[in-house]
Queue: 2 jobs
Job 1
Amino acid sequence: MIIVLRPATSDAEIAKIVDHLGALRLQAHVSKGAERTIVGVVGITDDKETLIAQFSQFDGVETIMPISKSFKLVSREARPDRTIVRLPNGATFGGNELAICAGPCSVESREQLQATAEAARRYGANVLRGGAFKPRTSPYAFQGLGEEGLRYLRDAADRHGLAVVTEVLDVRDVELVARYADMLQIGARNMQNFGLLRAVGELHQPVLLKRGISATIEEWLMAAEYIFVAGNHDIVLCERGIRSFDPQTRNLLDLAAVPLTAAQTHLPIVVDPSHGTGVRQLVTPLSRAAVAVGADGLIIEVHPNPAAAFSDGPQSLTLELFADLMRAIAPIAEAVGRTLPKNVIAV
Amino acid sequence: MIIVLRPATSDAEIAKIVDHLGALRLQAHVSKGAERTIVGVVGITDDKETLIAQFSQFDGVETIMPISKSFKLVSREARPDRTIVRLPNGATFGGNELAICAGPCSVESREQLQATAEAARRYGANVLRGGAFKPRTSPYAFQGLGEEGLRYLRDAADRHGLAVVTEVLDVRDVELVARYADMLQIGARNMQNFGLLRAVGELHQPVLLKRGISATIEEWLMAAEYIFVAGNHDIVLCERGIRSFDPQTRNLLDLAAVPLTAAQTHLPIVVDPSHGTGVRQLVTPLSRAAVAVGADGLIIEVHPNPAAAFSDGPQSLTLELFADLMRAIAPIAEAVGRTLPKNVIAV
Amino acid sequence: MIIVLRPATSDAEIAKIVDHLGALRLQAHVSKGAERTIVGVVGITDDKETLIAQFSQFDGVETIMPISKSFKLVSREARPDRTIVRLPNGATFGGNELAICAGPCSVESREQLQATAEAARRYGANVLRGGAFKPRTSPYAFQGLGEEGLRYLRDAADRHGLAVVTEVLDVRDVELVARYADMLQIGARNMQNFGLLRAVGELHQPVLLKRGISATIEEWLMAAEYIFVAGNHDIVLCERGIRSFDPQTRNLLDLAAVPLTAAQTHLPIVVDPSHGTGVRQLVTPLSRAAVAVGADGLIIEVHPNPAAAFSDGPQSLTLELFADLMRAIAPIAEAVGRTLPKNVIAV
Amino acid sequence: MIIVLRPATSDAEIAKIVDHLGALRLQAHVSKGAERTIVGVVGITDDKETLIAQFSQFDGVETIMPISKSFKLVSREARPDRTIVRLPNGATFGGNELAICAGPCSVESREQLQATAEAARRYGANVLRGGAFKPRTSPYAFQGLGEEGLRYLRDAADRHGLAVVTEVLDVRDVELVARYADMLQIGARNMQNFGLLRAVGELHQPVLLKRGISATIEEWLMAAEYIFVAGNHDIVLCERGIRSFDPQTRNLLDLAAVPLTAAQTHLPIVVDPSHGTGVRQLVTPLSRAAVAVGADGLIIEVHPNPAAAFSDGPQSLTLELFADLMRAIAPIAEAVGRTLPKNVIAV
């Protein structure tokens, strides 16, 4: 059950509702959005109708919705309009304009970032991606430059009018990463790191939540619910491929997940065809398909020199291939009634 | 190793080559195509270079190619141009024009077929699909109308200028099905029914080979190789989703398989988003994505009244939704430089 | 719904029941077992209770059971006792004594079979396995010796008191294989080759039905139902591993399938740890586990010289390793109250 | 490459080695074990032989091993003997005696714990399991009692001579959990939460590392390597089922992983058939199989009243069923030359 409050409801009115729920041994999850506050109610009751009748009489209550799904606040039932997530540079996820995130897997050097950011901007991206803290399967692999990397990202993005999305791996780094990033990424391995979900849920910056490597759509939306219920409503989902049996690709990109998820949640959803396939030659065709299927944006690994990349070289596009990708998706975007980021300088 | 023969090579010349291979304890797979004959050579030799030098001197030998892949004749190495498969009504797979196959899961009645064929043609399909022999998980489920169903298919297709593709389940039915169909479908469950592959390999009609429910790309191409090596070179591959863990969809449509397969074989590849998702609402978005990713065609379940369908109702489009699908893919096809079937009467 | 008939019910009485079902537009599946005949009834009825009351009055009807499962005749509800399948040499599947099938992947020569059969018998097996018709992923791989291989199998088995289990791939070979084999194997690739299931369903020899490479338990039992409903009740299920994502093993052996399946069907179930892992070193530990979990038998690939095997060498045991396996499972069998085949000459 | 140092090597000698490695641009991972210190060397060198010759002359160097695997310190190559992990109450993992961990999914109350601990001990367990911090898919599900739950666990275990294993979810809770627990569990969802792996790597208590829900054996061993390289060598692996496609079980227990992993690492490995199947009726048969396949112990969900459990009721054994399980595995343990915990009071 979700209690939707009127825009100007006071804290005292909210407190009354919460107290009364407590008296009925029901849990209240208050989430204050930009415009209105929602109280998610969780617990067991014998008589749902009486409960709805009772709370409808409280001051400030606009409407009450019984919700049967296991995820409640992120469900389409809870919000009829689709959420649009905005970054400070004007990039949007979920609106008519696509968000295009581009950049290297790992931040390696100031020069690498500047070259990538310049090209990303030139060819039409509006968000710079790059990892300063890297989740690596092996403890002996390059683990990222840390704060130095965050600085390079911020500098390169600022110089080229881009926003920054970067991964946070550890609850202890959330504040640090949030000082540099416009959007914090939760990686596939951490989709069910619930402490980290709660920690980014308390931030005011948007979160990019990648799907776990073998997560169902429902588990993914439940992970988003953890962030939402903690108070952060600016969540973007990211399909990045799931584990399967064919060794020819690193992951199996699940494009049906885009319309299937969009039918169940008001949150935007983007696609990562770089991790989703692990094969450079597949990135552009799958980007075309992602835009065609209805994705709200793309996140693409781009590197000035993939052969020398510290990580994920085989799936990274060169700057030129990224330009090709942007040319390839332009007519598809138009065909589905979407636009590319307006910052395009030259294609 | 593949020995490519000149167009006019005589049977006597071919026999000499085969005999000499036999003397060296190598197996020869002679496959006569429309234009030229290819001899696939299989076996172990110590000295490949001497072998190539030796056979280059035989009459009729145009060129000899060493091939490292486990699938040989269907590999891109064996044929630099992409194969175009043509049906009698002019439908093509693998050319610039897409092939659009539409029709019910099961053939149920003459009226159902006529209504579907009329609409399929009206909205732009050029091939009529429908099962007269149905592979059903349960022995108690509807098993198809058999020859009666084939007759309905042929009649409805002929009346509306469509070609017929229909599944053959059993080697004993190959001749019967081939009398009515323009293209024989090998279903996912039979992808490694090697006797059936060999039987359709001896036909002169094109074959639509669906990917097995958990087949790797390599296993799929090897199944195609069985058909090709038996002499039938008109093979179209069909991605139809693989088994995965999320209960929300019937299968997981693997669109990366399209460009990944196209990079390895000269055979055309189409996509079946109906079985690939099992969810009606996903069929049109995934059709857009399939065209965008580079598929050579689509195969769509369409039924005048899905709620009353004998099988696969939940994934079947109504005639109106099929019209919507065709409208949705038109601009995508244009965006990737492809055309829809020219027979479109009205959209 | 299942109508169980009394032992001596005449054909005329059965015909009356079937006719009356037809008049009600219900399908009747008559399956005559060794002791009694069962009529499986399929179709839709508004009033199940009236139907049961009606048919209870027919001559010969002992009892009528409504069955909710999609598989009916092979379900535990249809038969409270577990089925015991017997081979001519006295080997049993499903009784207290385990069945131990051993032999090469492919039949290669008379000498290979004689050496294997001699050792199989010596170390305690009671069934000789071996493929004369081989389902090979590649058309260029060894396809089996055909009838010559069947002869070698029969001769070697007869000389050593073993029964023969061998795969049939093609409906056109069913009669031929049945002339030589005591038990016909349906391989994983053919689990849903429904024509083949029906064909072996009309035989009087037992069938070993392997689980498809990504078949659910329900789909597997439905495949068994196809055989059962065709009249052959002597079916043994074989778990042989399913497809998964870790490249270290060929398949993922699903031992939970043994008790899970046994809870749903009266049919016996054996385990194939050779295909189930694809790794020689894992065959004996997984055999111990299979016996411990409750399997009714094992099917093991054994070869006098695995390094020279035409197929599946890496997963084949040498004759000595097979002796070790038998020694290893003996105390496990005892621990779970089972016995090894009594024909053991020396361990 | 691994440099194994003599027992009494001084810090100054170690520093010299590390410095010289640094000069060669190689990374040194010093891990001090109870008896000796190992220096894992990571990086790229042209001439491995010269390098080995060079470092062999340093003081304190006992031997140098080139290791090709991606996981080094946990590999069998690095330590020929199997690791035995000991808990304060004498429970061992990896020795001849099995470790039997039993207890509820969630710690719910003092009484629940006392009843469970009493029965666990009575029937032969030597470790008490139970979650005080629960990783729950839904934010609305019971999240555990926290420190209160840890206290209940400690008290109940102490009163009955058991050790405590419990999960830690968050790096910020590692110290707290370590104050109460004898062994810290890293759950499947956190197998690649690298900050948490490093944090428990700095502890002196043993760690139970569960396999991720779709982790390969190699990824799992790499996760163990993170803990090992941080200095904690007391790691026990736990197979708990992987994600698969059949809805009849919660996970697919991969028993082949036990011998397959044991062939690659010196670390002990236990099996969790409760999460591994999710079905109460399967827990005992799969426990028998786990012991038969060679597992070093079991971890079993036991609850005095599963029907009222806050979590995982359907897979929890009653106290009586746990007694049955212990009776069932006793003869299997004997058959494979293992013993049950010696603390058994009465079975």
Job 2
Amino acid sequence: MPGTHSAKDIHEDINCPAACSSRAAKFTELQPLMANIEPPREHDNSPVDPEQPGPRNQQGAGARFLKGVSYFSGDMKVFGKWMEKQFFLLQLLDWVLRGAAQVMFVNNPLSGLIIFAGLILQNYWWALNGFVGTLFATISALILQQNRGAIASGLYGYNGILVGLLMAVFSNKGDWYWWLLLPNIFLSMMCPIVSSALASINSRWDLPVFTLPFNILVCLHIVATGHYNHHFPQVLIQPRSELPNITWAEIDVSKLFMSVPVGVGQVYGCDNPWTGGIFIISLFISSPITCAHAVLGSAVGMVSGLALAAPFEDIYFGLWGYNCVLACIAIGGMFYALTWQVHLLAIACAFFCAYLGSAIANVMSTFGLPSCTWPFCLSALTFLLLTTGISAVFKLPLAKVTYPEKNLRYFWKLKKQEKIQTADKERIESEEEQKRIKEEVVMNEKEQLRLELERLEERRGEGEASDDKDEEVEQQGTEDVRHDDLTEVAVADLV
Amino acid sequence: MPGTHSAKDIHEDINCPAACSSRAAKFTELQPLMANIEPPREHDNSPVDPEQPGPRNQQGAGARFLKGVSYFSGDMKVFGKWMEKQFFLLQLLDWVLRGAAQVMFVNNPLSGLIIFAGLILQNYWWALNGFVGTLFATISALILQQNRGAIASGLYGYNGILVGLLMAVFSNKGDWYWWLLLPNIFLSMMCPIVSSALASINSRWDLPVFTLPFNILVCLHIVATGHYNHHFPQVLIQPRSELPNITWAEIDVSKLFMSVPVGVGQVYGCDNPWTGGIFIISLFISSPITCAHAVLGSAVGMVSGLALAAPFEDIYFGLWGYNCVLACIAIGGMFYALTWQVHLLAIACAFFCAYLGSAIANVMSTFGLPSCTWPFCLSALTFLLLTTGISAVFKLPLAKVTYPEKNLRYFWKLKKQEKIQTADKERIESEEEQKRIKEEVVMNEKEQLRLELERLEERRGEGEASDDKDEEVEQQGTEDVRHDDLTEVAVADLV
Amino acid sequence: MPGTHSAKDIHEDINCPAACSSRAAKFTELQPLMANIEPPREHDNSPVDPEQPGPRNQQGAGARFLKGVSYFSGDMKVFGKWMEKQFFLLQLLDWVLRGAAQVMFVNNPLSGLIIFAGLILQNYWWALNGFVGTLFATISALILQQNRGAIASGLYGYNGILVGLLMAVFSNKGDWYWWLLLPNIFLSMMCPIVSSALASINSRWDLPVFTLPFNILVCLHIVATGHYNHHFPQVLIQPRSELPNITWAEIDVSKLFMSVPVGVGQVYGCDNPWTGGIFIISLFISSPITCAHAVLGSAVGMVSGLALAAPFEDIYFGLWGYNCVLACIAIGGMFYALTWQVHLLAIACAFFCAYLGSAIANVMSTFGLPSCTWPFCLSALTFLLLTTGISAVFKLPLAKVTYPEKNLRYFWKLKKQEKIQTADKERIESEEEQKRIKEEVVMNEKEQLRLELERLEERRGEGEASDDKDEEVEQQGTEDVRHDDLTEVAVADLV
């Protein structure tokens, strides 16, 4: 019941500050992994999907088509609701598939299925590791009794799939080295713990944890073992120490274009352009806006690579693209409501992310580490922490984030309501409101008086005030001093 | 007076959010170093130690024995109270000894004394440096007028002893290089500053600072001077760059078993197994639970080292153990109340800590740095930030943390009270409460109305709402929008 | 209207915790960049500068002289107010000049002008890059609609000038490599974004962002391109790997003395002692306290370099000074009110900063990075996070920070008012106050009861309390348990 729940939240917020109610704190810290984690609503009595207001006479077939599309696009809420009544293993499969797609912020099992198909096309062993990672991350979240809604949205699985995949990708023992599944399972099961810990921190700023748990855990594994390890050797990564040979005449334009889908594929560590293409399709199914920003991000990454004189092989391989893909999706419509200003911001973020990506890759290669998706996480967090006076740049509350199209509808609705209220309010001409405000002010003044008294008592303890240079105290300063207006009056009356 | 003090805290929390009262903020930021820092209670009229409810007839001798034990086990509260009336230098000695033991979360001067004995057994010069470090850290805390209760619990000393010891351990000038005392004193005196600063940050999440100040300051010293320094050269530490030679046939089982006490000793940088054994005894005196988890942690570290194919010398030397020792103590009963779920969590944390230890050691060796206790700090903080729905995993409020046995009693008491209240409440059948809740709801609604008005005025300023696509706004969305239920009604009345 | 604004803030703080009102959060996060960012007041009707209470008969000429000085010393508020009515480009120039001076915490366009003169004396190309950086950072802040008062104080420009300057300094392509302006403009325009993001975080602890955005962005640029880059190669920086040759007989005392102004100059990356001297003059114009602490900091840095056996060239080159200069200014009067205790704290901070500087320089040279002003930022933030019981160490609220002299007057005024109030309060003998407090307590008790009820309901959900070992629950513990005093009574009545 999101409506009621929200109302309750407001109550708590008003009466009880963050520190006093550990329950409230706990609750909000359980929430904010990445997106809408409300448990699927049971009270939704409307038989049709509420997003599609039902077929009207003049629209007929089109509406019916849209309704059909709504069943497998977006976050497939109807399917999710239906799943709740199914066998547990089937539910778990749904969560795993959603987890696979959540890497790209997509809460859609169909997209997840297509993504697994793409992974299988790339490499069976990698796909298996990815599946094991998602599965055990989800199971671990269940054991730790994390928020069921978040688990059902796949928010505890996406770090698992990346951990599993990338551990397989960077292993130097080649495919089908079965022992690798041991650290894979251990680190996947650590995912929900790290996610929950980071969410406790990030929730203070209403920020998601993105793929930080994956970054932390995979870097942990790679650097803990390293290239020179008997059990789990890693691919050798070394810092660049000489001028790369770049001849602009040698550039291969077709490969350069191919690097756009490859960049999308590299989000999952895949260098097969067909796999990247399949991923793009899976994004389009759920959200065309996400899909467009993914392609745009990959292109921005490619351009940045050229601008910063990166070796062509790196660009062809998609290493400049995948972080920008994620950053561009995150800013462009996912956590901000999409307006043209936000669109520009997303492009700026993608450029910044590419720059950051080059920097982080160079730093981490010193330790034999790949850059993972650190650049995406850091750049997206920076842009989400941005506060601006531009009203068209609206950051959605984390609990309201779903997918770009729905986020946009939410934003439009807010805007419309504001307009109505503005017009409305001018009419009522603030009669009753004024009265109520006055009452509140009286209440507040009493509160302030009490605070004043507390301060007074506090100060009495400090005692030894230096009252030399009294004449230097500027007149104007008196109004600067925050909490003294009241006591001042009292003083004036008595002096 | 902890009861009164707490009640006052609640008052402040209710009426005054974190931002408004700088006094409250200051107070809470002074508090949260590591454990129970309430100043010893003067109003404690009961002549016997309240933890031991006095000899009863049926228990007689046993109770008297337990009471005797209580005088020098746990946190030796009676002794601490007695100390308050003594000569200042004697008090300072008490604080220094408690500081020495607080490295292992033990607030007990007897344990501290035994630990110093162990250090002297290891190396006179190191013991001297450790003593100087603890002493000056405590003095600096006194100068900076930090919380007296925290100082008396040794919470400002434990970073000092580690700074002093490890600076001596890693110095390349050998023993009795007297100039080393200069940076030792300077950095020890910086400890309370760094502690206080970190506590300001960590207190927001009710987290202790652990040994982070020590880690920061020792790494600072080592990397600021480095191996190639004329005045304060450091031991040369270099990253591994080739496959270590590990032959499983060569493993020495007796040394492997010895690595468990050595691991405990390495918490203080000591590689003598007898020293480690003495430390284990000192832990047992204060708290058997702590002692058991210390040994368990060291064993887990050893196993992890074998699993990750570490060179045997490192394992024998206890380098895989000491972080796990601390992590296992911290999670297993110290900051969580000990239940079997928490016990499993502590073991998981120890494994994670070992993994992390290997990773951090590899990263830091690039800079010629040892890994210090960074792995412990980071893994323990991660596990303390974890939020879970499991009711048996109860994180104690930082102000209530003392030692595992007492923490457990506190937890049991809470549980029992809950049970009584639950039963009780079902009886009274919520008559008066319902009434009161209604009153509160009315109050809250008034508050909300005021907030609505503020928002309305805010929005009026934003003005330019985009009202196209109005028909797309979904019905269901209306209840999603948090703060509009009230104004909506007004609108509906007027349209 | 700072007075009104503050009063409103208090209202908000009291009634509405941080989490509930996104507006309030946004507002406070927009604020806390570095200093007094209130928009220049229009309502200031007093024709003369209010800081100088007008010429009095007995002072005559002296007062008139002081009044004249006040027009171009301090933050030149009168000039700033006059500027508001001028042409936009002229305003922009004012903001750029203030931005140039804000690197040293000086909000004064005249100082900025002198600093630019010093830069031109050093190197035309660097000065140009610095100007471009400040300009585009300010423009970017305008585009992003950041707080106008902060922009007008130059708080969005100072990172820009450093980014521009240092990118030119560390470029390996030599002067007048025009392509460098491209990344310069891009990164300068990123400054306000990074500033705003960091302010969102730091504002939680009422901390400024210092030069962190500059550090992040310049390190980003240097490490993203590196020494081996075709387009933007950087100067080669490598870690020290052998014992430097230090012969104390070779020390050059005149160069050592010269290193003090050079250290001040190195804040802007300039090694010309005359440029450093000009900077010192520019500081003196605005604030003699700032100037004195700058020189003191540079001297402390030099001494630290000698103590830690740094190569003499580094000391002569001012590399040990510039961080200490900034740290000493920040602590010595800028963010703390200057008392002799704070003065000692500033010196301690400068020493700590020098230590940290050496450490960070060694770590960052591994990645081919200079240490920038990271040491200053980290050490100053540590000392600002310090909480202490010493009443003479008074940290100004960030919104009240202007320049040391004015900060001091604010502190004295507070002290004086406290004294009056203390005396006053003893007279009224808390008659009415007591009454009011009682009323508030009644209110609070009602609040608490409500909270109790919430907790009761919460606990009922948790249910399975373990009530074994009930007899072990200590008597004294009952008052420890925070939130049970009330319910306990109810229980006692019924049992």
